[in-house]
Amino acid sequence: MQDLNVNDVTDAVIEQMATTPDPRLKEIMEAAVRHLHAFAREVNLTPDEWLKGIAFMTAVGQACTPYRQEFILLSDVIGLSRLVNVMHDAGGREAAGTETSLLGPFFRESAPKIPLGGTLANVSKGSEIVIYGQVTDSDGKPVPHAVMDVWQTNEDGHYDLQAYDPTTMDMRGQLQCDENGRFHFRTFRPLGYSIPMDGPVGDLVKRQARHGFRPAHIHTLIAAPGYRELVTALYFADDKHVDSDTVFGVSKSLVIMPSLDLPDAPIKGLPSIRYDFTMSKDLDGAGGRVGSDPSKLVPAGRVGSDPSKLMPAG
């Protein structure tokens, strides 16, 4: 039997976990224990603070549903999603490839299919803009028939998952580029918005005196055989929060503005944005997504949990 002090306990835990057969799990958990224990020592974590942290994480889990992913939101606002995204890019995005951005907590599988020139709007109304361009590889060659998923907020700054019954899809769609990788679609200019502030993550952001806003943007996920999925977003330059995105998703190369003066615009008379996307070859099979459809992260038929199952007995 060993009497453990504030330093010995870390070594004891790692020694007991040494039998872990999965080498990657062993590596991750050993590092997690070292860093968590070092964190507790650095801030001199008290029992009351530790329990408040457990209560916060419990509340984050209980807020998750098939249509809301509070843990992705937490990862986003502390910059962890951005960090994982940047590290993931370093190992798989070609130098010429379009910069990526966050998938975010509002992506949904099986968006409505729309034709080239179609609109993302199913319920929403507003002043139309046109997004068009070409999908190419890193050598500038067209990627024929690439499939694009596009989603954004409505004119009130809400995603369909926030504004309507979950069966309603709006301001999102899936389209297929032509044989030359060209695409165009109609949409409304999105509104910048606050992240959901009615849950535990929102409470944390308020306590940190942060504004909690994301600049106006349009999400895009592009897929084609032989290429790494491209997950990115286009951000509007004149949004007042474009330099202080609360989830750290903006890159300079992704900032855009509509114009009425683009000579090759496919629909005349509407403000247009041309943006050409460059896909990277899929060299490692790791995929391009950092994030998920919220419904994929909750066990079928289960929303939340019995609180008694989340806390130790006694």
Mind sketching the topology for me?
Blueprint: H1 8-16, H2 23-43, H3 47-63, H4 70-77, H5 80-92, E1 128-136, E2 147-152, H6 160-163, E3 172-176, E4 182-188, E5 193-194, H7 200-207, E6 213-214, E7 217-223, E8 230-236, E9 255-256, E10 272-274, E11 277-278
Parallel strand pairs: 1-10, 1-11, 8-9
Antiparallel strand pairs: 1-4, 2-3, 2-7, 5-6, 7-8
Structural commentary:
Residues 301-314 have low confidence and may be disordered. Helix 1 packs antiparallel against helix 2 (23-43). The chain has helices at residues 8-16, 23-43, 47-63, 70-77, 80-92, 160-163, 200-207, and strands spanning 128-136, 147-152, 172-176, 182-188, 193-194, 213-214, 217-223, 230-236, 255-256, 272-274, 277-278. A hairpin with a 6-residue loop joins strand 7 (217-223) and strand 8 (230-236). Strands 3-2-7-8-9 form a five-stranded mixed β-sheet, with no helix packed on it. Strands 1, 4, 10 and 11 form a four-stranded mixed β-sheet that branches. The protein has a two-stranded antiparallel sheet with strand order 5-6. The chain is globular, with a radius of gyration of 22 Å. It has 314 residues and is α/β, with parallel strands linked by helices.
